[in-house]
Amino acid sequence: QTRKIGFIGLGNMGAPMAANLAKAGCAVTGFDTAVTAAEGVTMAETAAAAAKGADVVITMLPNGQILRAVAAEVLPAMAEGTLLLDCSTVEVESARAVADLASARGILCVDAPVSGGIGGAAAGTLTFMAGGSEAGFRTAEPLFEIMGQKAVHCGGPGAGQAAKICNNMILGATMIATCEAFALADKLGLDRQKMFDVVSTSSGYSWSMNAYCPAPGIGPQSPADNGYQPGFAAELMLKDLGLSQQAAEAVDADTPMGARAFELYRRFVEEEDGRGKDFSAMLPRFATRRRE
Ligand code: NAD
């Protein structure tokens, strides 16, 4: 039968995800505090109204505080045995708090942040990293298949968020390492293309170098070839690095590279000219700086 989906948060990511669900035949009712129309979505007046009668309520919201507020509003409107599927990137703590609220009402809950960005959301090729019960994951799986190309069940509540922030902590650090190495290579008189040819096939390779090369005109097409228009904006990387540092503090984990990456992106976004640029624009930043 037709799946009834409530979709809360129809921004850059949520709108194309909801459109793909609608295209696949789901009946999607949506709510957003700012967006008033979205492809394939019947808009409701409130979050609770969008959630009422839904088999699954999906949230794609800016942060954990907003997620908690929305969850408190939609859970009472949802029927027992239905699923709350949060795809936002939020603190592990918020994910677990929302899972507790849901479970107290007999509602399944899965945290499933995504990787793949706006392009992946539009193409339906996102990767989902999911945390929650086996039953919750199984219920979400057909939707993951519509909106994405891969879903990993990482563990219990919060495990999806944990995987996401660990992944992005590595990504932030390797992007910085790749950019500072290019800047060093420049000053050593090493051609950028040669640098790419060596590193992309040597032990310094990473997704940052091989798939998203921060140097324009080199490697595969990336935001560097488009004036560093995001892509994945530096401020979103800053958000995710902040979440990983918050989590590290909460569990007393030593993450010096993550902490340094957070500080560099914080300066880039808040004190330099990084806001609105792709996170790989760290390369021109390093290339134009002197040693501190
Ligand atoms: P966005 O700001 O474009 O969308 C968020 C939407 O939520 C907005 O339309 C906003 O109006 C709406 N909203 C805010 N408060 C609300 C409320 N109380 N009720 C209903 N709607 C509300 O952000 P986005 O880029 O779509 O990102 C959404 C989430 O996905 C974030 O957690 C982000 O970290 C994560 N994410 C984004 C990307 C990316 O490349 N953009 C990639 C991976 C993960």
From TrEMBL:
Residues of the full protein shown: 349 to 640 of 640
Organism encoding this protein: Roseobacter sinensis
Protein name: 3-hydroxyisobutyrate dehydrogenase
Lineage, broadest ranks: Bacteria, Pseudomonadati, Pseudomonadota, Alphaproteobacteria, Rhodobacterales
6-phosphogluconate dehydrogenase NADP-binding domain ranges (all copies): 4-155
Every 3-hydroxyisobutyrate dehydrogenase-like NAD-binding domain range: 158-283
Coiled-coil intervals, chain numbering: none
Domain of life: Bacteria
Family the entry assigns: Belongs to the HIBADH-related family.
